[in-house]
Design goal:
10 helices, 3 domains, 55% helix, 21% strand, Tetrahydropterin Synthase, Chain A, 10 strands
Length: 295
């Protein structure tokens, strides 16, 4: 499905304000002249001249171009501003807007390279740089642009996997812009850029991908935890080798652990007597107690 955000101005635009003003002026002039000279022909001439200018005067906007065809033959481009044509003999093509246009294109239920159905929305920025070519060489360049964009989008989706569609949108847009620009340049149209706006996948597949990602994160977390345990065990083994060859270091470490345990106010730690004797703390604790009790 393609959505057109811009439309072509019709070949027969509504009557312009200047043409209506000239028509009224001619009618009023003819009526006044008829009243003054008491002859009917001035009002007829005024009516005829007014009708002629009513259909002969056209106004082209600043950003528009239009082709004039005289008896079916191309006479040239006109605009912007006020132009005059010969009614009945001259006809106008559709008005060509030369501003940058934005059109939306979507591809529904299109399979990626890994056979995943996706819905993709894209925005195409394009402009007409040669109005003469766009009028004479393609019947309806707006429809041609949109159909080409939709076809190119589907082909691009089929060449990429789902992961690429989700992570490399800019690359996909550049590829599609290049393909469209090569096709539309002979028509006097250039595609400036293509932006992938949204990539939607089916709900069940999205849930499955979410569960897969969660399982992958849990697996990585367990691997990191196991590696941490291995590193801790290695460090403990190195410390054991140091303490085995240096009993004093082991005693200092034990005393530090005991201090850390009892430094909090109101805490109580029960230490086996064998551990106290091993660390040689019996005499030290007794001496500290006697010193505290002396006045």
């Amino acid at each position: 499905m393609a959505l057109f955000t811009t439309q072509r101005r019709p070949a027969t635009p509504p009557l312009s304000a200047p043409s209506v003003a000239v028509f009224l002026l001619c009618m009023v002039t003819g009526a006044v002249t008829t009243a003054l000279i008491q002859q009917p022909w001035p009002v007829l001439v005024g009516a005829f001249a007014g009708l002629y200018f009513l259909f002969a005067i056209k106004v082209i906007k600043q950003w528009e171009k239009v082709a004039v065809l005289r008896l079916g033959r191309y006479k040239g481009l006109r605009g912007p501003g006020l132009i005059m044509i010969v009614p009945i003999f001259d006809s106008l093509s559709a008005f060509v807007d030369q501003r940058v246009r934005v059109s939306s294109v979507s591809a529904e239920s299109t399979l990626t390279r890994d056979t995943v159905p996706v819905n993709v929305d894209a925005i195409v920025f394009w402009l007409v740089w040669n109005a003469e070519k766009s009028i004479l060489e393609v019947e309806n360049f707006v429809d041609a642009i949109m159909m080409s964009a939709q076809t190119g989008l589907r082909e691009s989706i089929g060449r990429h996997s789902l992961a690429q569609m989700l992570t490399e949108r800019e690359t996909l847009g550049h590829e599609l812009q290049k393909v469209l620009d090569e096709k539309t340049n002979p028509w006097g149209i250039t595609v400036q850029s293509v932006e992938i706006r949204d990539v939607k996948i089916p709900g069940p597949l999205e849930d499955a991908m979410s569960r897969q990602a969660q399982a992958e994160r849990e697996r990585q977390a367990r691997i990191i935890l196991g590696e941490a345990e291995t590193q801790i065990a290695d460090k403990f083994a190195e410390a054991a080798n140091v303490y085995r060859d240096n009993p004093v270091a082991l005693h200092l470490r034990a005393m530090n652990m005991l201090y850390e345990a009892i430094k909090e106010k109101g805490s109580m730690v029960i230490v086996p007597s064998s551990a106290v004797e091993t660390m040689g703390l019996g005499g030290s604790l007794a001496t500290a107690s006697l010193n505290r009790n002396q006045p």
